[in-house]
Design goal:
Elements (H helix, E strand, L loop, with lengths): L2 H6 L41 H4 E2 L13 H5 L3 H12 L16 E2 L4 H4 L12 E2 L9 E7 L4 E2 L10 E2 L13 E7 L15 E7 L6 H4 L8 H4 L3 E6 L6 H5 L3 H14 L45 H8 L19 H7 L2 H14 L13 H9 L10 H13 L2 E2 L7 H12 L2 H4 L4 E2 L26 E2 L7 E3 L10 E3 L9 H5 L15 H7 L9 H8 L3 H13 L1
Parallel strand pairs: 1-10
Antiparallel strand pairs: 2-6, 3-7, 4-5, 4-9, 7-8, 11-12, 13-14
Helix pairs in contact: 4-14, 11-13, 12-13, 15-20
Length: 559
């Protein structure tokens, strides 16, 4: 193969790749566990999170729950533990007391509900969408299929529960998931006879599941009344290692965009929202443009970490207010739910008893007038709600969030793993799943200026070589029933092979909607369409003998 031909075949193999769990037996492949891991002769890619971000020799059920060495070096162990409690334990619907403030409507009651043992969400079974299951971290995405934008009458992450007298904006018990099977050009079969399945979810949501529809709302576009909306699934990501991704410098991420633009290897180019004749800042959220390249969520909507997915979710998933967000997360429009809930007689009749607990001293007269409808509306749309999470608690939460370690690589001397590592590069998988980055100063930046969290408050990871296996850029795979917009951030591969060990999931639950149950399914989804950025490397993988395919799987499991 000529050099030019090889590089033409480099487009990413594994943009959202699913990984299988490591073997529970002999997780260290016979390596003697030394009390000081630095004394053991290990390759540098063993240290997935660098010396400051790796938890060593841990492939147990709590492998994603450990603090980084940086947390201990900074003396932040106590804050990490308290932050861990904030993340793990459910919030309560009471207005006062420990962990109070859940609601008035909410998506889930805790981080643990969506991130079992801090992994990504577990696979979604066929049938009724069960939002009450603590392992169901796959959220609903309701969009206008013509624009790929979120509908305005629900939130981007629709709330599924309500605190009396309020009612859930969306009834999850009326939503069903059906798994369909797609067939690729190979008939879902390798040349040697081994078969695989390419399944994908279809979600059905009747308009009657939408609260405001039942209250008389009809959207101007007619999507709600005609059921012309589309419902997709989007799984949560693992929380571990996000502090290390935050430590990558803006300059290095922008350089990666420049490199990929210059190489011109992606069939779909780069997302013009982020790169159009050069890197450009872009964002839906008010703080975004001033903070450089996005790092977090599939859609790259969030960054830096202090304003990213977790910092946002501890507020909008639970609707627990804090000093920088003294308002409720309701719908994209901002007033539709409030308008129709305020007209609901059941809500009106129960509101006084509810608000008496929230505002016992009647500091907000606009919630206590003789106009019941106005009282409800004013409360739901208020920008000056009582603070339920203190700044100290949020800081502890962020110490935990930025301080979660990445488990070290496993089986790093195994011959099959080493063969798989070699093939991973030869196939071109490492183009988008870039193996390593080296952090620089790791300057902590906080858009929430009321709190102004700094490097003295949070664990930091300067000058660390880390191995997340992502280029931090979006690509397209053109899968059946694809992710919203088709653009998806290259998923970091580090430690994803431990998902089943951590959660007890029956499947690997990989890719953005848990469609891939194992590594093979995930890889082959990357080549489902000839328009995929990963089509050519996937075809090379398809043509490998089974022994080599298994070696690639073993390597992906190991990292």
């Amino acid at each position: 193969m000529t050099k030019n031909k090889f590089f033409l075949m480099l487009p990413a193999l594994m943009v959202g790749i699913a990984l299988t769990s490591c073997k529970p037996e002999n997780p260290n492949n016979g390596i003697t566990v030394d009390p000081d891991p630095e004394k053991v002769n290990l390759p540098e890619w063993y240290w997935t999170g660098g010396k400051l971000g790796t938890t060593y020799f841990n492939s147990t059920q709590n492998c994603f729950e450990q603090s980084t060495p940086a947390v201990d070096k900074m003396g932040k162990g106590g804050d990490f533990t308290l932050g861990d409690q904030i993340a793990e334990r459910p919030f309560n619907t009471n207005a006062m007391g420990t962990r109070s403030g859940l609601g008035p409507v909410y998506v889930r009651a805790s981080c643990q509900h969506c991130h079992p043992n801090y992994s990504h969400g577990m696979s979604v079974p066929e049938g009724t969408y069960n939002a009450r299951d603590i392992s169901n971290g796959t959220l609903l995405v309701v969009i206008n299929p013509a624009t790929q934008g979120y509908v305005t009458w629900l939130a981007g992450m629709p709330q599924l529960f309500g605190v009396a007298p309020f009612k859930a904006p969306l009834n999850p018990d009326m939503i069903t998931v059906e798994w369909k099977v797609a067939t690729d050009e190979h008939g879902n079969k390798f040349a040697d006879g081994e078969t695989y399945e390419l399944r994908y979810p279809e979600v059905k949501m009747p308009k009657e599941a939408v609260y405001v529809y039942n209250q008389g709302y009809r959207d101007p576009e007619g999507l709600l009344e005609s059921e012309g909306y589309e419902v997709l699934l989007e799984n949560t990501i693992g929380i571990y290692g996000t502090g290390l991704l935050d430590a990558i410098s803006d300059e290095d991420i922008i350089a990666q965009y420049d490199k990929e633009a210059a190489d011109g290897l992606m069939k779909n180019g780069l997302n013009p929202a982020f790169y159009k004749g050069g890197f450009q800042t872009s964002g839906y959220y008010k703080n975004d443009p001033q903070w450089g390249p996005k790092r977090f969520t599939y859609a790259l909507t969030r960054g830096p970490l202090q304003d990213a997915a977790g910092a946002n979710a501890i507020w909008n998933i639970t609707n627990v207010t804090r000093s920088d967000r003294k308002y409720h997360y309701l719908d994209l429009n901002g007033t539709i739910y409030a308008t129709y809930a305020s007209k609901d007689k059941t809500v009106q009749d129960g509101f006084e008893a509810f608000i008496a607990k929230v505002d016992p001293d009647k500091k907000h007269p606009e919630w206590w007038s003789d106009d019941k409808e106005a009282n409800v509306y004013n409360y739901l749309t208020s920008k000056d709600l009582p603070v339920e999470m203190t700044d100290a608690e949020f800081t502890q939460f962020m110490v935990w969030h930025r301080g979660l370690a990445v488990p070290a690589a496993r089986n790093v001397t195994d011959s099959a793993v080493l063969r798989g590592k070699e093939l991973f590069t030869q196939l071109g998988c490492d183009y988008c799943h870039r193996p390593s980055w080296t952090t620089k100063e790791d300057i902590v930046r906080d858009p929430n200026t009321d709190m102004n969290l700094t490097g003295e408050d949070l664990p930091r990871y300067p000058n660390q070589k880390i191995w997340p296996y992502t280029d931090m850029v979006q690509h397209k795979l053109h899968m059946a029933n694809d992710i919203r917009t088709g653009w998806c951030r290259t998923t970091p591969l580090w430690a994803r092979g431990l998902h089943r060990k951590a959660t007890g999931d029956a499947y690997e639950a990989r890719m953005h909607d848990t469609r891939a149950r194992n590594v093979i399914e995930a890889i082959m989804w990357h080549g489902y369409s000839t328009e995929s950025d990963a089509y050519y490397p996937t075809q090379q993988f398809y043509n490998l003998p089974k022994e080599d395919r298994d070696a690639v799987v073993a390597f992906i499991n190991a990292i």
